[in-house]
Specification:
Elements lengths: L1 H13 L10 H15 L26 E11 L3 E12 L8 E10 L4 E10 L5 E15 L12 E18 L4 E3 L2 E4 L1
Antiparallel strand pairs: 1-2, 2-3, 3-4, 4-5, 5-6, 6-7, 6-8
């Protein structure tokens, strides 16, 4: 459906990776100068250990928050023209080993079809995973019956409407490789 396709596209764009640093000759000299400066002994100051003076920790990019937003115009035979948007954020809970995330996907068509899908996975420092998904769909369509012998005269207007909620909690057992916990699904 619209939401699944957008979520897959957004995930592919988000995980496409950070471009590798440009190591052309001009940048090479700057990198060598920075490396030489990093290897130089730090100046000593009274009352502070030599290892801590003059050294600043580089930002931990693996813990940085990142986000994306992606609008999309589409056309399908069943939906005609539609507009959709997706957005999400990757973040770290303090002291958690894994990155957490939250996503939102919404779409609407000129046929009056629409869906909203919100989901999140939150990793806690204990190794537990809390997950949730809320999806709402309003999808007017036509039904022609079942089987290859149906005709256009059998066309029947119908609308699929549903609200779906899934909640889960997974707790680590036997290290971090095995997790158990409840999952609740309502539709």
């Amino acid at each position: 459906m619209i939401g699944s396709a957008l979520a897959a596209l957004a995930a592919a764009l988000l995980t496409a990776g950070i471009p590798a640093p440009d190591l052309r000759e001009a940048d090479g000299a700057r990198l060598r100068a920075a490396a030489a400066e990093a290897e130089a002994p730090p100046p000593e100051s009274p009352g502070a250990p030599a290892a801590e003076v003059g050294r600043s920790q580089p930002p931990d990019r693996s813990r940085a928050r990142s986000w994306f937003a992606l609008p999309m115009l589409f056309w399908l035979p069943e939906t005609k023209l539609g507009l959709a948007a997706t957005g999400g954020v990757h973040f770290h809970v303090p002291d958690a080993a894994e990155a957490s995330n939250a996503f939102l996907v919404a779409g609407y068509t000129v046929q009056g079809q629409g869906s909203v899908d919100a989901s999140s996975d939150v990793w806690l420092r204990s190794g537990a995973l809390l997950s949730g998904r809320l999806r709402a769909v309003h999808y007017p369509d036509s039904f022609y019956g079942i089987g290859p012998e149906t005709t256009l005269a059998e066309r029947e207007e119908m609308t699929r409407r549903f609200l779906e909620l899934t909640l889960g909690a997974e707790l680590p057992v036997l290290g971090q490789r095995l997790r158990i916990g409840p999952r609740v699904h309502a539709r």
